[in-house]
Specification:
The complex is a heterotetramer, with two copies of chain A (230 residues) and two copies of chain B (217 residues). Chain A has 230 residues and is α/β, with parallel strands linked by helices. Chain A contains six helices and eleven strands. Chain A starts with 9 loop residues before the first helix and ends in a 13-residue tail after the last strand. Chain B has one domain: Glutaconate Coenzyme A-transferase (3-Layer(aba) Sandwich). In chain B, the strands form two sheets. A ten-stranded mixed sheet of chain B has the order 4-3-2-1-5-8-10-11-12-13. The chains are: A alpha/beta (230), B alpha/beta (217). Chains A, C: Its EC number is 2.8.3.8.
């Protein structure tokens, strides 16, 4: 037996993402954000997207391009404080924003990736984030039902990949990437380096290949990936 | 292994399409892999935490830390990955497992599967079988057509505790290949030397026959 | 800053485990089973234990010693088919056995480790394993409530550890270990090798040190860890 | 930083005991670490996926993939580990975080914390703050005693949307160290040069005073 090859071009990897699709995007700030895949999503132009991402990046970076192009109808996120456009669009009612506690967003995505219906938590129980959500008692203690999140497409930034789609991440660029890489019907990974099959140690793979559909090697690391000099 | 069982296992191997992620249960299903070409592109999954199972190894060449879910000493292939038990079943439940082949105590004409408990006699526990049966995109059973006493394993209804309801798509036995359809058991192929009358007799529920010639394996 | 040292003796690591404690034990068959820690638990003799482990090992191995010594009142597990003593004790009513679907046991342990109340799943919905469990509907689909599991003590087998308690696992010896290492009030890891601080690459740590309380270096790898020649 | 704020931060550093796992929020809390001895045994956690934060680095020495949750370029120490966002908050929610220090818009006398939303004005989102506030074993607030307009941040009740209820144990401000007790705010220490009258005036809820001399910082 050998494992199948999933390397492809960026155009083919993203082809056919439909209007109205739900798109998960990895990253926490700059590290782990798949800037190159996001540019291709802007170029291909799918409209009315629901985007699930920890944050909205900063002006002229990552998710901000999708906001500028008007492709995003809804953003499920935890913190958009570094993106003035996102806050303005939200305040003007032109962007629907759903805030989650950060670890709960992580768990909801993971639950989708794990084929669960949701999780039970007491996080945010005394806050407005809990409003309108189902609750349930276990042994007399009340929990909030947080539903699983899945997406049509996940855009992932990896450090290294092999041709089967095994991925690793480096430092704090890991964040939401391995969770989202489990939780979408089509998982597309950009990798700084694509190795021959067997190039990653089986013990040190962070995302196993069966979760990944397409692997795209980055031909350059653009300025967006670099140190932010504020 | 009997000749008919061997042909059944070889026939079952044709269910595996290139590029699939496949979990092969303990027993007959494990043998299926021996009938694939050496360079066939497939990812074999085992629920104890490996995608990309390589050949089984004899004890003197085995790694004490590398087994499949049945306890056999296995190996890796280029591109294998290890993961924990939560990730392993995340893969199964979220639809990344294209195919599983499982053993059975009983299969009903509605595709119900019973393969983990014989009350009062043998209750080893379900292991990972429930999730494999319920969530693999296609579930195939490999089994003898009858139990050791000669009683049919294919029945109108399962009498044993269920593993999962309505999960089985196709059954391979030493006597036949049978699909589960909305109308119940439907014969696809029969084993060489097994007559339709013998097959009907050994099947505990109505068996619809295809029109025209029935292929053999 | 430096990180604190958690290495200790096996006697101290397990000291004071109370009668009636709940003990999680890693491993799937031989790989990942902390055989040495189990022997010390037998030696120290805590009674009336609830043990949570994927399986019951085999005769004269691992959990079987705890069954033979009569220390286990209850076993939460997925499969005990290779341990005739476990099946006999269960059939005689001398051992309470709670079966779980294997991935659901993994998720229940993980939920405990993640500070959740439980998870929602449709696994086993048509089986006797679902009997008596709460259900809940999301968008018209019914889910079973599977409650989180936590333990007083987790016994973990690692490949390598550093003094802070960062752990890695090898091959299929990982299995339940990283999940249980998050889910107990006292987490005790035996390691085949204990490295100086910084000996593990920060990207390849499987269990982060903050989850681990005690690290015990194995001075020998006994026969129980070896290839099983049936 | 003003002298009083600097002394407050230095005083807050004494809350960190050897062996703790600690998360320091953006702003003043981040400065606390500068007041610990270089070889102090503590594990600093950041919710974007690192246990064992090392010194902050200038851009020319920074790693583009290594930031803390506030976006500062940081480094590792021997024994650091990286992990994903689910594991990072698993650590927080399951009780492995001994202490967090957070900023505040408002703190109530019941220990309620508001620090993520000013409706209609500023709604950046909660980030990881809710889980830190709700699940760290001890929650300490570091803040100016009043807002820019001079209004008290310590109040009988929070008027802003809550981050978490009853979570705050102790507040460090540029004017005082104040505990949250079943009886409300209780003065522990006051800043040098700040009179009890000034302090009472700047606090938006009753402040109980200790008997005897009140230490200063």
């Amino acid at each position: 037996m050998r494992l199948p090859d999933k390397t492809t071009t960026i155009e083919d990897a993203l082809a056919g993402i439909a209007d109205g699709a739900t798109v998960m995007i990895g990253g926490f700030g700059v590290p782990g954000t798949p800037f190159t895949l996001i540019h291709e999503l802007v170029r291909q132009g799918a409209q009315n997207l629901t985007v699930i991402k920890n944050d909205a990046n900063e002006t002229d970076m990552g998710v901000d391009h999708l906001l500028a192009s008007g492709q995003v109808a809804r953003l499920i996120t935890t913190h958009i404080g570094l993106n003035p456009r996102a806050m303005a669009l939200m305040n003007e009612g032109r962007l629907e924003v759903e805030f989650n506690a950060q670890g709960i967003l992580a768990e909801r995505v993971r639950a989708g990736g794990a084929g669960l219906g949701g999780i039970l938590t007491d996080i945010a129980e005394d806050t407005e984030l809990a409003e309108g959500k189902q609750t349930l008692a276990i042994d007399g203690k009340s929990y909030i039902v947080e539903t699983a999140l899945r997406a049509d497409v996940a855009l992932i930034h990896a450090n290294r990949a092999d041709a089967f789609g095994n991925l690793d991440y480096v430092a704090t660029a890991r964040n939401f990437n391995p969770l989202m890489a489990m939780a979408a019907s089509r998982v597309i990974a950009e990798a700084e380096q694509v190795l021959p099959m067997g190039g990653l140690s089986p013990d040190d793979v962070h995302t196993p290949g069966p979760f990944v559909d397409h692997v795209v090697e980055l031909t350059q690391i653009s300025e967006e990936y670099a140190i932010v000099r504020r | 292994m009997s000749d008919a069982r061997n042909r059944m296992v070889a026939r079952a191997a044709r269910e595996i399409a290139p590029g699939m992620v496949v979990n092969l249960g303990i027993g007959l299903p494990t043998q299926v892999v021996n009938h694939l070409p050496a360079d066939f592109p497939v990812c074999l999954h085992t629920e104890n935490g490996l995608a990309g199972i390589g050949p089984t190894l004899p004890p003197d060449r085995a790694d004490r830390n590398l087994i499949d879910a049945g306890g056999a000493y296995v190996s890796t292939v280029p591109g294998s990955a290890f993961f924990d038990s939560a990730v392993s079943f995340a893969l199964v439940r979220s639809g990344r497992l294209d195919l599983t082949m499982l053993g059975a105590f009983e299969v009903s004409q509605a595709g119900d599967l019973a393969n983990w408990k014989v009350p009062g006699k043998f209750s080893p526990g379900p292991g990972g079988g429930i999730e494999l049966a319920q969530k693999a995109r296609r579930v195939i059973v490999l089994s003898t057509h009858t139990d050791r006493a000669g009683n049919p394993k294919l029945k109108t209804e399962c009498s044993l505790p269920l593993t999962a309801q309505g999960c089985v798509a196709r059954v391979f036995t030493d006597m036949a290949v049978i699909d589960i359809t909305p109308g119940g058991f439907a014969l696809v192929e029969h084993a060489q030397g097994v007559s339709i009358a013998e097959l009907t007799e050994a099947t505990g529920a109505p068996l619809s026959l295809p029109t025209g010639d029935i292929p053999t394996f």
